[in-house]
Amino acid sequence: MQATFRVLRYNPEKDNKPHFEDYTLDVHPTMTVLDVLHQIKWNYDGTLSFRRSCAHGICGSDGIKINGKNALACSILLKVINLKKVVTIEPLPHFPIIKDLIVDMTDFYQKLETVKPYLIVNNPAPVEGERRQSNEDAEKLFESAKCILCACCTTSCPSTWSDENYLGPAALLKAYRFVFDTRDEASDERLDIIDTPDGAWRCHTIFNCNACCPKEINITWHISQLKKAVSTREL
Amino acid sequence: MIHKYDVLIVGAGGAGLRAAVEIPKEYTCAVISKVFPTRSHTGTAQGGVCAALANEEDDSWEYHAFDTVKGSDYLGDQDSIEVMCQDAVRAVIELEHMGVPFSRTPDGKIAQRQFGGHTKPENPNDPNSRRLPVKRACYSADRTGHVMLHTLYENCLKNQVKFFSEYFVTDLILEDNICKGIVTIDIATSEIHVFHAKTVMFATGGFGRVFRITSNAHVGTGDGCALVYNAGLPLEDMEFFQFHPTGLWRLGILVSEAARGEGGILRNKDGERFMERYAPTVKDLAPRDMVSRAILTEIREGRGILGSDGTYYINLDLMHLGKKLIDEKLPEITGFARTYLGVEPTKESVPIQPTAHYAMGGIPTNVDAEVIADEKGTIVKGFYSAGECACVSVHGGNRLGTNSLLDIVVFGRRGGKKMVEYLKNAEHTEFKVDPAEKTRTLLDGVLNKKGTENIAKIRREMQEVMMDKCGIFRNEKELGEALVKIRELKERYCNASIQDKGVIFNMDLMEAIELENMLELAETIVVSAAVRTESRGAHSREDFPKRDDVNWMKHTFIWKPEDGKDSEIKYKPVTITRYKPMERKY
Ligand SMILES: Cc1cc2nc3c(=O)[nH]c(=O)nc-3n(C[C@H](O)[C@H](O)[C@H](O)COP(=O)(O)OP(=O)(O)OC[C@H]3O[C@@H](n4cnc5c(N)ncnc54)[C@H](O)[C@@H]3O)c2cc1C
Ligand code: SF4
Ligand code: SF4
Ligand code: FES
């Protein structure tokens, strides 16, 4: 079967601005979009550049925009795409393009760091053995801890587009991961950080983020829990 | 550009990050990685990290050590294995204290599950009694590596560790047996950055990408091992490469042993639970080398299932586990089966085949992660290595599942501690020659290559020949053919060119350098496999089907040959403390 892929190309060494290029190739429904990119790179145009590593949706390297929707190249099989039409492949929106499908994620990583994404404890750990936590409490963290930092959510969020200081869904999700960890002792500090106009309150529950999270995390729900935590602590 | 640091850690997987956490603030430390830290391969580990916590049932570190020795087919060094298993409980508790969100038992302790090759004696008073599977693998659903990697990275952020992400290491500076630093390319600009250091650690991970069907990430190309080999240091036990029995058919994506730990069963085309024939006591939970051979034997003897593309597979049956258990404990891997094969594991069997998974061999080190320069154990000053790229050797001929996530935190930490000790009296030693020279030549060479050969094609041919002739079963004839082919590919590589001549994020360039590295490693694997005329662990010779303890209780050390000569091979005896070699039956 043949299909055509319209891929955004941009090499700042040569191009003034990004442009699209079409590649038509033989494909199979069980191929992933990452396979397609590799085919193009290895058989047609070696200059095509993109990030990838694990090839099965766990390292978070290859977030891109496929037919207008953010997703991981390695996790989208061709069988879920309408191949009768040209398939458009672009880098994640909003971030500056470094080259082709590679974007500059510095801002994304920096925002993550502002929520103090690590366990903070003042009381010493038990001399022997683990800190106890019920399995129910542990499982409250699992969905947020699934995040692979692919930035599909943050770059799809209209609030991110309109407010460059907005922390964004991924950083807020990370805040949840620690605020709701029964072992953590710095919830207040973190709630202070997100209880700002550019924090949790910038989220207008538009659900774009949920719709494209490759790990199917209900990000909006997690953000709403943070908002609740902020409100109840003020009482 | 030249940077100066006290400590340099190459690799931001579990081993590198754990080492970084160990370096106190008074020393400057940088971690260098060709991918952003959380993209490292450790994040793909699913099943668990083992320690005899005895949270679910009685267990002891001695049982764990015995299993590791036996699993290694008696090639593991028993002093190192004792160190690792004794330290395991502390290491896993420490991970919990750092913040790893583990699954929990009803009383709030870290939950544990069964894993292949992990056992305890049926009668605790009789160490020789029948051994039964034990719950020793600590887990967080089937995302254990992911949460460990993220937690370690988060702890590095907390400690304000300096990262150089997307820097590609191209050279190791070794002069007079002292490691002085490394050379890198900043991938974003292709600029050369030299890092001058008092101590260097390589935690660069494995090289499964040498084989066609693999569970390893695209970045698993063994650069660190190749750099060490090119610098004139030996590599150890390269013939021992583990094939994991359950990769998704045709793709190699891993279905963790946790699937069998939770009760999954392998069946051939007649629906027979064939592992009962190969390992009557532990059945589907036999060690990986044995299960992989059993699968291939079933297929060779006509009991595989014929797939749509003419290749054969075996079924992994999870249906009887029920939807609830599958969703709770194996969500990721069943998700892979759904996404990539369109198979619904709660209703259908999952087609699997063995997949190249783990390098037992690598950079030889002692128990303190100090790199050794020869079979006598001579230490290379200021140079350390830990994790999958290193060979301590705790895994010997075959690694037990969940022992690698343990290995990386135990030896990452030990290496970190040893570096700190070394730093007390260490100085920056001046370079004798321009350290960047070789990398400049490399860059110019690759960028200006004019030949007609294609990098992707050479890589494919290497992966095919390694899979077909140097895979699960080996013999003299095919290894000979493989060697001829690899050498031919090395020549063809010299005549290959790349299309991208730019300096910004030149992925073509990286792939070319990675291929050059992999071709070196492929050669060491084939040569080491050819000289070892016995079958042990993952190294299975059809022409020498028996383990030969009289002649082969020793590790292979291989050095890079001078042009046109044969590789130099020497041997180091296995360290035995308390476990005498026995026949390996399960
Ligand atoms: C799918 C899968 C599942 C697994 N599951 C388990 C499990 O359940 N339990 C278990 O114990 N083990 C498991 N393993 C094995 C285990 O995950 C790995 O052996 C271990 O994580 C390796 O860690 P590491 O720190 O040594 O290397 P990696 O995590 O591979 O890190 C290597 C680092 O080196 C860097 N690097 C490499 N080359 C260069 C270069 N040229 N320049 C700069 N940086 C470089 C990379 O960027 C990376 O940061 C699994 C392995 C796979 C493939
Ligand atoms: S729900 Fe909130 S975070 Fe998600 S896209 Fe909408 S505004 Fe952004
Ligand atoms: S929440 Fe989902 S989409 Fe956002 S970074 Fe994490 S994994 Fe990616
Ligand atoms: S390549 Fe790792 S998530 Fe796609």
What this model shows, in words?
- The complex is a heterodimer of chains A (235) and B (586).
- Chain A is α+β, with helices and mostly antiparallel strands and 235 residues long.
- In chain A, 33% of the residues lie in helices and 14% in strands.
- Chain A contains eight helices and seven strands.
- In chain A, the strands form two sheets. Chain A has a five-stranded mixed beta sheet, covered by helices on one side. In chain A, strands 6-7 form a two-stranded antiparallel ribbon.
- Chain A is elongated and about 60 Å long.
- Chain A starts with a strand and ends with a helix.
- Among the domains of chain B are: 243-355, Succinate dehydrogenase/fumarate reductase flavoprotein, catalytic domain (Flavocytochrome C3, Chain A, domain 1); 437-550, Fumarate reductase/succinate dehydrogenase flavoprotein-like, C-terminal domain (Methane Monooxygenase Hydroxylase, Chain G, domain 1, Up-down Bundle).
- Chain B contains 16 helices and 25 strands.
- In chain B, β24 and β25 form a beta hairpin.
- In chain B, α13 (455-469) runs antiparallel to α14.
- Chain B is globular, with a radius of gyration of 23 Å.
- The termini of chain B are far apart.
- Classes of the chains: A alpha+beta (235), B alpha/beta (586).
- The interface between A and B is large, with 59 and 59 residues.
- Residues 147-153, 169-170, 173, 213-215, 217, 219 of chain A line the site of one iron/sulfur cluster.
